[in-house]
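User: I'm curious whether this sequence folds into something compact or stays loose and floppy. Could you predict its structure so I can see for myself?
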Amino acid sequence: MARLKTLAEAGRAAGRTVCLLGRAMKKMVTAANEAGVLVGFPPTVAPEMAADVPRKNLMLIVTGSQGERRAASAQLSRGKYLGLQMKEGDMFLFSSKTIPGNERGVLKIVNAYSEMGVDVVDDSTGRYHVSGHANRPDLERVHDIMRPKMLLPMHGEHRHLRAHAMLAEAKGIASEVVTNGMMMDLTGDMPEVAEYIETGRLYLDGNVLVGAMDGVIRDRIRMALNGHVLITIIVDENDEPLGDAWAEIMGLSPKGKSGKALSDLIEEDLAEFLAKVDDRVLKNDDKMDEAVRRIVRQVCMEEIGKKPEVTVVVSRLLAD
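Assistant: Here's the prediction. I'll summarize afterward.
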């Protein structure tokens, strides 16, 4: 809040009308005012009024310094937002440092503004950023005000959590560094680990929750990137191939560099394979799967430069 107030005061001192953009920004300011934390905040105007203010006299304070897709800064980079639009000659300041992992989202916004002709100033200058995170004296002050019996540090890298826990313990406060999956028992005098539970990301796939590491999403991504080939082979009662193999391709170019149909080329190579395949391979589904998969990927790599996902279906007819 101190940083926000400083920005607004600087804007007013420069003769600019200040407008706050973003629901999170408005909620934060409203809550701070109601709690008495924010005193003497400069007057602001609504977005619909800001549209009538000359550009040289307007300052927008917006949400989305970490590249959040739905925040005001990202929406402005895509065009109009609440009647306001960035134009060539405007300047956009990031009063923040990019958190590791958010680089792609931030860079997308920076490039979008650059294409508009907007001058962007970010943390690369190192001249004006002030951290909004509490430092050691701030944390000590919070401890003195709250006087907790126990403290579980939250937010930050592990080294930050550990340093906070050590700070609390130095003041006689029972503390524990808690990581994902740790269930804590806080009923005693000391925080204790009650149990560990499995954690991780979950995706809602249709109406079913699947784990990020279950392979479902990974397989779908691989099929989307590499395409898919379905091979069907029928083996008769005597363990002999019945006819030729069938190939169905999905998500791949129908023709390769030779100009021939990709499915025909795959079927031709598989026909040669089935004509001379060893009985030990033909009778073993796993060996058949491996051999057919290798042939299909080799043909696709030579023709279209891709190694698709391959599903091999071997249907065996049973003797009466």
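Summary: Residues 17 and 245 are 73 Å apart (CA to CA). The first strand starts at residue 17 and ends at 21.
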